[in-house]
Amino acid sequence: MRSAHVVLRRVWLLGALVGLPLAGCQGVIDDPSGSTDPNDPRRPGGSTTPLRCEGEPLVPASAPTRRLTAAEYRASVASIFPGVTMPELRLLANANPEGFDNDVRGQAVSELLVESYRDAAIAVAAAAIEDRTWMPCETDDDACRSQIATQLAGRVYRRAPTADETTRLTGFLAAQSPEYGLVGAVEMLVEALLQSPTFLYKPELGDPGRDAPEGLVALSDHELATRLAYFLEGGPPSESLLARAAELRTPEGLEAEARVMLESPAAERAVATFHDEWLRLRRLEEVGLDAELFPEWGNETSRDLRESLAAYLAFAFWEDGSVEGLLTSRRAYVNDRLAPIFGVPAPGSDTLVPVELPATERAGLMTQPGLLASTSHGLSHSPILRGVLVLDALLCTPPPPPPPEVDPTIPSTREDGTPIRTVRERVELTHGSAECASCHEAIDGMGFSFERYDAIGRFRTEENGVTVDPTGVLRGETVEDGVALAEALAADREVHRCLATQWYRFALGRREEGADACQIEDLTDRLEATDGDLRELVVALVTSNAFRFRPQETSE
Question: How is the chain split into domains, by residue range?
């Protein structure tokens, strides 16, 4: 009999999941960027013509309903059942390898996804019933059933349940207890609640009764608390935050809470998640290099490089805290295995320790070996992938994919049959044609700046006995090498705008649209007014209209 309930619930859930998010996704799926014209001044990372936003209302674009990411799901169930050892949950990742995990573009629903949620709910419910220290009582009477239903619903829904919801859930426990006992009924209730759209999604209906700028609706207290907690702490709002959520109604109250959150260990993990997804650091796990050419490479090295890069990014955000520091600092984190790759003496440690790198060899994020290695493959480094990384991550102008008819093969010999000894020359010979030059002028101009670093990010001056040429190009101007490019990018307003855009995407779970341009321009202004302070950028984002409000629904 119970299996029939599971089947019926699965069918209902699939319909609910498919139907719920569509109402909030209009205009996002088909046109996530809001503009396909690279010269559109409203498009972040497009034309350098200054935007004219003075006096314009800072109105955000769409506000699609977002689903919990796999990491957010795990954090949420851990919060619902404190102290319970959770089983390993095999949740499907969002199908969006080119963006943040919370991007709605990758949140399409499939039957496999629904099944993974069902399996996870069953596993979590079993663990929660095995260790019932979270349950407020275990007496099979109306008072206890109501207490359990109220507590569970409050934690699962991330708000106080309505009287009707409490009555309905209490009634479910009362109906199932005679056959399954209170504990069995609670297990079934947990399974059902963890498969409900109210838990799996972050509904944001807003509070129409609150004051809001024209065309906007203020988020309700619990909706804003939920948005803030998942953004800055990677998990659901605490009961104490929900209890004082009314304090978030003003920008001042929201700013104060954001600053408190930014001092928490959870914020360190949330910022690390941003860095990991922004730069797609998981690619390091997929890099395969030739063992004969790079005997140092292996799982241990790739893991160390990823941890080293994560440590650098944490330093850049939490200690230095500036755009300039992020892009030009000579700080690095090495152990004895990584020291030869970084070109520094071994520190005599298996764990990572901070060191300072030679100023003439490296500068900031883009010359960190972990990031350089993440763009390598097979036998060598890739100037193309390195250039694409700069354009995408730091300038928000990712190039389009090559036409399908273009042969991606890079020659290893010249027309006369003599071997080509540098990767740069091979790429230059390939992309000299008009059909390639339109895109590769920008891609290769950036990527060639890093020719002094091999496939594992090691500094060098020669490649196969030939002196490397590290000169690159930034908007038609020659840059001497990767260090010079890093310093130029650190002072570039387009980079500042792109960093504001990347944080905007992460906070809102969607790509920017044309209507977001003035909001992002305002964030860029505030970033530059604070000398590139990254934490102040996050605080400015949290107090922005885009974060505090949602667009008003319009009838067509």
Answer: 67-201, 271-490
